[in-house]
Amino acid sequence: MSADTTPISPARFASAIKDLSLGMLHLKVLEIRNSIAHLQYSNDQLKPFADGTSAALGESATPAAPDQDCIDAIKENEVVIDRMAERLAIIRAEVEDRGVSWTEFQSQDEVEANTNAEVGEALTNGDVVADDQAAETTRHSAWTDGTFQTGTISNGQVRFDSQPGEQTTSVNQSEAQSTTQGAERQDGHDDEEEGGLHL
């Protein structure tokens, strides 16, 4: 970073995003995540040199002393990553203040992390049930016969949650495909005068 520049303060950043649309906020989140990913990749590449386990090209093949420039660059990148994470938190607060769920803004990694954190907890009407069999006996059949389906929409992809003990069938797969590809199919009714999509 240049010595004569300073980053925007969190308060100024928060006021700057107030007038942005949800679409622009989504793009800003993607931009910040991309910046964080590049900084983390850079740190991963610099780490062997900062640790002294690798030597720069043209130097001796044996590992050298830790490179202070690489150590400083990693520290600076970590400061910037923390600042970017703070900006993500500010955007999240703004999105939730507008009454929109943050789940639409979550990255695939966050969705998978949340899913993995919830594994093992069987919920029935918001109550944690000790074992899976108790959950199966107290749940209404509508939850297991396909009447109700739960899932997530993330990054434009629809993912249905699987039910415990449910086997994925081609019928379930074709139903999921028909919901996402319904606008593309017209089931051969192109010749009819009515036109449109027939469900």
TrEMBL record:
Region of interest (Disordered), ranges: 133-199
UniProt-listed InterPro entries: TMA17 (IPR038966)
Stretches with biased composition (Acidic residues): 189-199
GO biological-process terms attached to the record: proteasome regulatory particle assembly
Gene Ontology MF: a single term: protein-macromolecule adaptor activity
Chain intervals with Polar residues compositional bias: 140-157, 164-183
Protein name as it appears in the record: Uncharacterized protein
